[in-house]
Predict the structure.
Amino acid sequence: MISGRIIAYPKDGNIYTEKLYEEVTRRGVAVIEGVWSLRWLRANSSRGDVIHIHWPSFLYFDPRSRLRTGLRLAKMYAALRAAAARGATVVWTAHNLYPHDDADAAALHRIGRRIIVASADHVCVHGASAAAIVRREFDVPESRLHVGHHPHWIGCYPNNLGRIESRSALGLGADEFVYLFFGRCRPYKGLEALIAAFSTAPQPARLVIAGKFSTAGYQREIESLTRGDPRVQLVAKPIPDAEVQRYFNAADCVVLPYRAVLTSGAALLALSFGRPVIAPDLGSMKDHIDAASGVLYAADQPQALAEALRAVRSRRFDSAAIIERVSEFTWTRLASQLLEIV
């Protein structure tokens, strides 16, 4: 058992970290929000503490200046070395391989990841497929790589509305087959490909795209692709927690056509509502989705997504069985795994 505290980056403001550390705290381990500065870590970290980092790019990346990003990378290295010198253990949970939307800064992000991997005593990943990718990309020794499962979201959101009530609230027909994309709308998530593939889907069908867009420009781009097609419903806003159930309970399946993915919380959310998932055969999607819980398609085949949209309609899925299977992956289990390795 850890003898000190977990210093988290971040602790609050993200449902994943909040759920994880809630379980850690229940086991008697203190968790605090860290301040990212060399001076703060020197003054506040000590032997037995754990520095737990989730998305390291937020600690160094400045989209306005490559120079400032470079300086912050140097400070990150110094801060991690200082924490290690004081006896703290450094843990990185690899939610993604690299940031998805900063292609122009790819070289800097590679440096950032190398610093994290070189400094981390332990690297945690969600699923065996993600572990293989991280091991191959960063040459992480197996002794430092720890595999767990992304926990489910059952009970994290209200779930007391049925299919008919949910569809009525969203203006969807009872007999339409409803495909849902849910989550932050960002270019790497493949909405353009989804819209093109949906245009060939059997009718009657509806496509609902629900979530806030990363930029106004990207929203306009997607709006231009869907304009004039009444079968596509674009809900371009953050979805309140109380309304999440409407979308999943109204949907027949959830489509996540990402061009790149290591771990997907959205896939676990869909499965937690008992909805089958259509996704590319990338990252941890291969660990979470099988013939009983969705359709995986070949990410490198141009027509594969359209074929998956058709294939899902010819199969029957057991919602209760999907929920039962994903219920095995608990926050309690993940918290225990974290505390075991540190």
Summary: The mean pLDDT is 95. The radius of gyration is 21 Å.
